[in-house]
Amino acid sequence: MQSKRVKYFAMLVAALTVCAPLFAHHGAAAYVDKIVVLKDATVTSFLWANPHSIVMFDVKEDNGTVTHWAAEAGSPSAISLLGWNRNSLKPGDVITVYIFPAKSGNPVGRLNKVVLADGTSLRDSQLGGEKKSSQ
Amino acid sequence: MGGIIFRWEEASEVPAVIEEQAALIDCYSGESDSDPSQLQTVRSSEMRNLLKFCIVLMAGALIIPFQASGQDSPQADRASNSLYNKLGDTGSGGTAPRRDLTGFWAGLVEPKLSEVSPYTPWGQEQARLHKSTGDFSVADSNDPAQSCDPLGFPRNMLFMTRGIAFAQMPGRVLELFQYDRLWREIWTDERKLPKNVGGDTADAPDPRWYGYSKGSWEDDYTFVVDTVGIDERSWLDNDGHPHSGDLRVQERYKRVDHNNLQVTITIDDPKTYTKPFVITQANFKWIPQQDFEEQLCVPSEQAEYLKVIGDPAAHGKGQ
C-alpha cells in the first residue's frame, strides 16, 4: 500500500505542477485527452486563417472508404513561431497526423502535430505536446 | 467514437503531459485507472489520506505559481507559441529612459491570473450566465470572443496579450495591441474621467468596450492608469468572470530597466465583487525588432472554423 501511495503522490505532483493550466485551457473541452495517430493522411486543403488555422485531409480506411478530417491548429502568428508557414502543407501531401479527436465522434480534432513526408515535425501552438518544443 | 472505424492507432509515444493530465482527473475523482480493482479494497481511512494529499497538493498548485517570477512557470512553458518565451532572457538593456514607455513590448499570451474576490449576489448571477471555453466546447460557449466581438478591457490585457506598444504624444498616451490591431487612448492632460457613463441623462457618455482612461507618472519610471466606463458585455477574463459598469481598473506600469516592463492590474467593482483584488502581475520584454505581427479575429474565418470544426466537435454521433 505504501508503494501505491508513493505512486499516487508522484503522479499527483507531476500532474499538478505541469498540467493544471493545460487542463483548463480554452477550446479544449470538446476533445478527448488522448492523441491518436492517423497515418497516410492526404492533405486536401490548408486554411492559414485567424484565429485558427485548419488542416483538412483524407484518410483511407482498410475497407476502402475515405474519411474526410478537419483539424484545428493555432493562428498563423502563433504557429509560425513553431516553424509553420502558409505553404507548409499543399493538397496531395501525404502526412502523419497526431490529433486529439472530438468527443462527439465526428472526424474533427485539435492537432498535436503533423509529420511531413521528409520527416519534418510541425507542432501545434496550444496542444503541441512536449514542453519547449519551440525552443 | 460512435461506431465509426477510423484507421488510427493510439500514439505509441503519448507525450507525458497527456498521461499526467489523466492523473489529475484521478485526483479529482479519487479513482485510479492503473488498478481499479485494488483501489476498491482501500480502507476508508486510507482514502481520506489520499484525499488529503489531493487537497494539500491542490492548495500548493494554487499558491506556487503566483510566487513564481513569471517566465518559468508551467503556464509559461505551455504558451510556447509566444514571442515572449522565444526571446528568453534579454537582459536589462541598460537604464530605462525617464518617463518613457515608448516602444514595442512582448507579453505572455495568457498572463498568470490570481484568484478573484468573492462575488456579490449580483456578481454570482452574472457569472452563472457565462459559459467559458474552459468548461464548454466553442460551439456551446457564449464567450463573446467566439463571434469575434471585442475582447474589451481589461480582458485584452489578460488574454491574447501577445504584444503591446506605447506611443506618447502631447496630452495622451496611445497603447497599441497586436491582437486585433487596436489601441486605447490614455489621457494625460487636464481632463477628468467621466462619472456617469451609461447613466440616464442625455449627456451621459456611452459605455465603451475599452473604457475611458487617464494616466499620470507617479515617479520617473511608474505610469499609473485608471479606467472607467467599460461596457458590461465584455468579460473580465478568459474564464468568464463578469464585471459591472461600475468597474474601475488600475494599471501600474513600472519600467524596471530598458528591456523590462511590469504591470500590476487591480480590479475594483463593488457591484460584482466584495472587495478589490489584483487580477495579475505581468511582465513584458522589449521586442528587439520593434515590430508586431498581424493577428486578427476574422469573422468570416471564425464562422468557417465554427462550421468545419466547432460544431462537429461539440455535437455528433458520440453525444
Distinctive features:
heterodimer, A: 135 residues, alpha+beta, OB fold (Dihydrolipoamide Acetyltransferase, E2P), 6 strands, 19% helix, globular, disordered C terminus, B: 319 residues, 2 domains, 10 strands, disordered N terminus
What is the CATH domain class of the domain at 30-123 in chain A?
Mainly Beta
Which structural class best describes the helix and strand composition of chain A?
alpha+beta
CATH fold descriptor of the largest domain in chain B:
Lipocalin
CATH topology of the domain at 30-123 in chain A: OB fold (Dihydrolipoamide Acetyltransferase, E2P)
Which protein chains make the most extensive interface, counting residues with beta carbons within 8 Å of the other chain's beta carbons? A-B, 79 and 85 residues
Contiguous helical run count of chain B: 8
Report the mean per-residue pLDDT of chain B as an integer. Answer: 81
CATH level-two architecture of the largest domain in chain B: Beta Barrel
From the spread of the alpha carbons, the general shape of chain A counts as globular
Q: Quick one: how many beta strands of chain A?
A: 6
CATH-level-2 architecture of the domain at 30-123 in chain A: Beta Barrel
Order of strands in the sheet with most strands of chain A:
1-2-3-5-4
Summarize the structure.
The complex is a heterodimer of chains A (135) and B (319). With 135 residues, chain A is an alpha+beta fold. Chain A contains three helices and six strands.
Structural overview:
The complex is a heterodimer of chains A (135) and B (319). Chain A is 19% helix and 35% strand. With 135 residues, chain A is α+β, with helices and mostly antiparallel strands. In chain A, strand 5 and strand 6 form a beta hairpin. In chain A, 49% of the residues are buried. Chain B is of the alpha+beta class. Chain B has helices at 16-29, 36-39, 44-67, 74-78, 83-87, 121-129, 155-158, 299-314; strands at residues 8-10, 103-107, 163-169, 172-177, 182-187, 212-219, 222-228, 248-255, 260-268, 277-286. A nine-stranded mixed β-barrel of chain B has the order 2-3-4-5-6-7-8-9-10. Chain B starts with 7 loop residues before the first strand and ends in a 5-residue tail after the last helix. Mean pLDDT of chain B is 81; it is low at 1-10, 12-47 and 53-79. Chains A and B meet through helix 1, helix 2, strand 1, strand 2 and strand 3 of A and strand 1, helix 1, helix 3, helix 4 and helix 5 of B. Strand 1 (36-47) of chain A pairs antiparallel with strand 1 (8-10) of chain B, so a sheet runs across the interface.
